[in-house]
Specification:
This protein is mainly beta and 193 residues long. It is built from 1 helix and 9 strands; from the N terminus they run αβββββββββ. The protein has a single domain, classed as Beta Barrel (Porin), CATH 2.40.160. The longest helix is centred in the N-terminal third of the chain and has 13 residues. The two termini are 39 Å apart.
Amino acid sequence: MKKILTIIIFGLFLLPLKAQERRFRAAAVGGLNLVQLDGDGLLGFHHFKLQGGLKVYTKLSERWEFGAGILFTQHGSKRAAVDNVPVFKQIDMNMVEVPVLMHFHEWKFIVNGGVSYARLINYRIINYKNEEVTEDYAFNPTMFSIILGATLNINEHFGVDLRWSKSLNSLYRLENGTKMKSRVFAIRGMYFF
């Protein structure tokens, strides 16, 4: 009975597939994050960090795709010359991120939106005295974010992607009650297999 049920379920998934139609594709992603931590007392998106990984897509219709990925991504903030004397000089965070997005195709553009889950691998905090004070701060190890983005397909294999994301939960709460949340503008190159 289990074998018959397994064959029926597997067969139902294969019915909508056409022999010539490619239902899945993958992409390698790499680029820069321009990062700001709201609530850290530092201003601007002038801390450049890296992002890279792999994404997979499944075609839902001619214009719609569902996509998910696994990315190594860096967040943080850095003191600028215009900042007052804040508590922090620099915050660096390394994370693994799993974005889940819906993609809409229009001509050479792909517009997308969705959510992501990120897990903190490690972090480092430098205070205004240039001392490492990482042990004094227990950051939240998980981050949930919303994502909006657009990709310009240069050709069949290459694209340029712009992405905005904002964390929904707090990474850390300062003693004065201020919550730290991450905002990121990402500029990435994509190679579609």
